[in-house]
UniProtKB/TrEMBL annotation:
Species this chain originates from: Rynchops niger (Black skimmer)
Cofactor(s), by name: Mg(2+)
Active-site residues annotated for this sequence: 8, 10
Keyword hit for Lyase: no
Gene: Phospho2
GO molecular function: metal ion binding; phosphatase activity
Family label: Belongs to the HAD-like hydrolase superfamily. PHOSPHO family.
The protein's name: PHOP2 phosphatase
Residues annotated to bind Mg(2+): 8, 10, 179
Amino acid sequence: MKFLLVFDFDHTIIDENSDTWIVKCAPEKKLPNGLRNSYRPGHWTEYMGRVFVYLGDNGVKEDDMERTMTTIPFTAGMVDLLCFIGENKELFDCIIVSDSNMVFIDWILKAADFHKVFDEVFTNPAAFSSTGYLTVQNFHAHHCPKCPKNLCKREVLKEFLNKQLERGVSYTRIVYIGDGGNDLCPVMFLKKDDVAMPRQGYTLEKKIAQLAQDLSPVECSVLVWSSATDIISYLKLLIKE
């Protein structure tokens, strides 16, 4: 009996958006209007690439960025939840599927000593160039019309489950914990024994509610959370079953 926990990162594990938090490193902690207005829907990763060039041009170094990123607060109850999962790793496989980037997530998890809780992290690849600029790439190419160009979380989840099956690992239940609009696509892939846990008051909860109103509800169960202690309570019940 093994459960798979799938986490989003921004506004789920951490209580902020890591990509907008990095702006605290910019001169006067803001971006010029021209740069801010250059974002095109569905092309966030390219936009962040331009933000990182701007930071590099303004002399923002890797150390400055790391110091800033590791001040992001975790969501209420999340530290307790990750400790609980860490203590029960024989029951839970745990992955992150996020539209942030590998450098940010690595910094944050390692600073809090949570990197061992997660078996894999699927996010946009990032690295510092020889000139000290942070660069970011799209996670993959895909054909899903519902998702941003750089990442379809359903595709990531399907591929992960297929690889696990090849290794002889299947899951009693998948629990998907997220908040954003791009978490709806993987939630719609979940089956009736699985559970979607949208964060209260955020886009994912609203989109799931809208589907139910449109009489095309998601197949899985839905449990809303406001603090990660709600998630711990559910996982404790799951273990007792």
